Amino acid sequence: MQKLFFLTDNIITRRDYDRFGINFLKKKFEVKIISLVNYVNPILSKNNHNFKSKDLIEIKNLNKFNQFLSKNNKFIVVDFLGSSKRSWCLRNLIRKKNIRIISIYSGLFPTPSYSFFERFMNLFNKRKRFGGNLLHKLQIRFFNYLNKDYKPDITLVGGDIYTNIAKQKKIKHIIKSHSWDYDSYLKLKDKKIKKKNYAVFIDCDVVFHPDYTYHKITPPARPKEYFKSLNSFFSKIEKKYNLEIKIAASPKTNKQKIEKYLSSKKIYFNRTQELVKDSKLVFIHASTSIFFPLKFNKPLTFITCNELRNSWFEDQIIYFARLLNKKILNIDSEQDVMNFNIFKNTNKFLTKKYLKLNDKSQNTKDILMWKNLSDYLIKNKI
Asked: What is the pTM of this model?
């Protein structure tokens, strides 16, 4: 049986396990998730833990990884490594052993562009530092440059934008498919919508997100101030519109922390798509999960607060809102909260344009992405 090994240097969540399609792939392959977070990002692994699974192997240093590669043969690596020095070291070690590598080109997160002057000035403003400090950014760019000629053997692409990228890199095997979120959409699209009297807030784990440690990013808000604004806003909306607010927690959100700060709300993990589908409307900051309210045609409101003002994260909210020609609701403004039209639908043309970034490749069937991959590998005897 062919072996598929998923390699990652970040924390593995239950959502990762599900979206990697492990249970499906195990029907046709021997599948393992290889966590190298202890080697690549030891600080991250101190305060965060991998989702426990019998399919998970944790490797703590380069020698152990080298031994692991030597003990196993005839396998394919699915690459979810980052761009740090150690990540590239691992990737190049795999390449030297002539092990085939699969990369996933999907799920583009739109980010604002800055002029050279703006980027330079932001280096001296902690609240504007997206992607870490200057030294970290220079290191990432340096190692990406050193490996600029690297390309995987196989790529699974989730949209025509990614197909073009793969073709430019002259990757030998390009498998056309769709995004992670489109997979989730496929599982729900034929189920009848049970429209209920609630609104969804799509949480982004603004304060505590573990990826801040991974990317060396300064959190854009303090917990006390941020959650005070949210709780006050939710209470006003529930009272004014007689709507229950449900929280679709970010997959990496710490359950104890969010329940502490949003104790009066119902909080759901790994159920964003179902919650959005049956909701009346959606509140969001900036997240790729915007795919779901757009795909299910839900009224969508971008929100910010005083605590997020002039931060790198508010820049992302502004950028997302502009892409869809949306105004932003400041939840700390009484006038905004009372007068903002939260039931306004999103422009259909702009919705379609955005979904091209995070939808599906043209002329592809509605088949789950991991079935696309497994069928291709088996058919081509890779």
From this structure: 0.87
